[in-house]
Amino acid sequence: MNRPSILIVILNWRQPEMTIACVKAVLAMEAPSFDLLLIDNGSGDESAVILEKELPEIPLLALPENLGFAGGCNVGLRHAIEQGYKYALLLNNDAFPEADMLTILYQAMSHEVGMASPKVLYHPERDYISFGGGKQHPLLLEVRDHKANQKDRPAWQETEEVDYLWGTCWLVNLAALPKVGLLDEHFFMYYEDLDWSIRFRQAGFRLLWVGKARLYHHESRSTGGTDSPLRRYYLARSSVLFFRRYAYLGQPLFIFFFRLGSALRMVTRLLLKGKGASALAYLRGMRDGWKLAAEREYKEAKR
Fold this sequence. Notes:
Layout: E1 6-12, H1 16-27, E2 34-40, H2 47-54, E3 60-62, H3 68-82, E4 87-91, E5 95-97, H4 101-108, E6 113-122, E7 129-131, E8 135-136, E9 143-144, E10 159-161, E11 169-173, H5 177-180, H6 192-202, E12 206-217, H7 229-246, H8 252-272, H9 276-302
Parallel strand pairs: 1-2, 1-4, 2-3, 6-12
Antiparallel strand pairs: 4-11, 5-12, 6-7, 6-11, 8-9, 10-12
Helix pairs in contact: 1-2, 7-9, 8-9
């Protein structure tokens, strides 16, 4: 019996019910044949027990510790490569595909395409776009997405080559990874998708946003909401790592002052909303990101 060419990898972290709902949506897809792998990313609760009980037919890897989004995905990618799959679909456990999503993404792939992602829409506001394809700001390296938060339109059904793909859902061409490498685990979570996007393009691979493929996303469930201390910490930490690494691709001075202003606005907004813990977490994230980036640059300079 021939192995399917696609391995779907779904990470769980303390959200077994959400993961089960995601798996059921995946299994309902009208798609090319695929295998499915669940990874419990060191939840430290009853997640793995619940998943094994409710989804006994689905292979589950229970990791002893939380490796972060990048590290958990890398476990799945290594498994896919070792087992001889051609593609890996990395899918957030709080994202739900339409029945034909994988088929449409699969049809968009070719040897020069590194990754393809669907149109990501909000859930439950299913007509509004969360991610519509990212272009890189030439000075600031920020993601420019003119479709984000807009109501979906018939004109936005095409496939576009983009600069950035968000990590909500990727169909990854595994043949590209010897040149590109795996996700950078220094990011733990957030900005690993932008870093990977740049490395795919630098290695000569195309990134595709596929407008006909649709996915519905519950945002920021695993981190406790958009302004939770956990989310604000890792966004700040990873943003410093990202912009210090890639400032040379834009205008470093512009980036520095823009990011400084952005940080001041963020802290002020959080304090005005009474979210002092999140503001402190954000500042700690910036501090830790700066230290980690400096340590990494020092080690690279000594090589």
